[in-house]
Design a protein that fits this description.
This protein has about 300 residues and is an alpha/beta fold. It is built from 14 helices and ten strands. The protein is globular, with a radius of gyration of 18 Å. About 50% of the residues are buried. Its EC number is 2.3.1.39.
Length: about 300
Amino acid sequence: MGKLAYIFPGQGSQYVGMGYDFYKEFPTATDVFHSAEKALRYDLPTLIFKGPEEELNKTINTQPAILTTSIAIYRVMRELGFPEPDVVAGHSLGEYSALVVAGGVELFEAVRLAYIRGKLMQEGVPEGKGAMAAILKLPPDKVESACEQARQFGVVEPANYNSPEQTVISGEKTAVEKAMEICKEMGGKAILLKVSVPSHCSLMKGPADAFRLKLAQTPIKNLSIPLVQNYTAREHTMAHEVRENLYRQLFSPVRWFQSVQYMVEVLGVDTFVEIGPKNVLSKLVQQTVSGVRVFNVEKVEDLEKVKKAL
């Protein structure tokens, strides 16, 4: 019998109305949304359910919104008798949802961490200076080479190793655009992303240093479920390691596909369940490994079929 991993999405999966069916139908989910509202002292549930979209898409709101929605769905799943996972992981911001599930931090603290993380990231680089782009149909080493060649134009680095055929790059706009050109010349496809913050590159070192102080003040406990972290692509349970990796994650690449491979090849995971809005991670898992079962729980109607399959 293989192992079960619960995985949690990051920024980019948000949309107005996410989680509303859970909020309406399950008091457990309602409580999660209102706990987040209390933690932040503003009406996050209304912003999530009604928008406006441009407000929800601001990093400062997006991060706590996705975390809250994911945890609301997870708590309903547990209440309905879904099994506890053997291991958890999350993509970038999703690592904080995974951390709550692993027992490392209380929801109240996690929501505040997500808000502060988003705020520091948003303020860390002036609007219009940074950019991110998704590079498709090129192996990671080619993308790394393109970034090296474009470095004379400014900071540009791999930010997310999403799958063996998809790498996101991040940095200063001019350098990112130059790296995109080089990737296209190599036969890849390059898409500029609609983001206001160049995440997971060295431009985030300043915000990360400020965030480190907040992490130090946050009570983080040793985990009851192993968390495979973005920075190392390895599992961790000790609070001091988790804290350090959360700090480094901000200015280092998200090693997502390496994390997925590690969960399958080393930890023996054969079933992944993505919990939260959309199914971005489910698709990336399918691009990375074969012979595993992949499900996602985003809507109330997903509960029954996924529970039956598990």
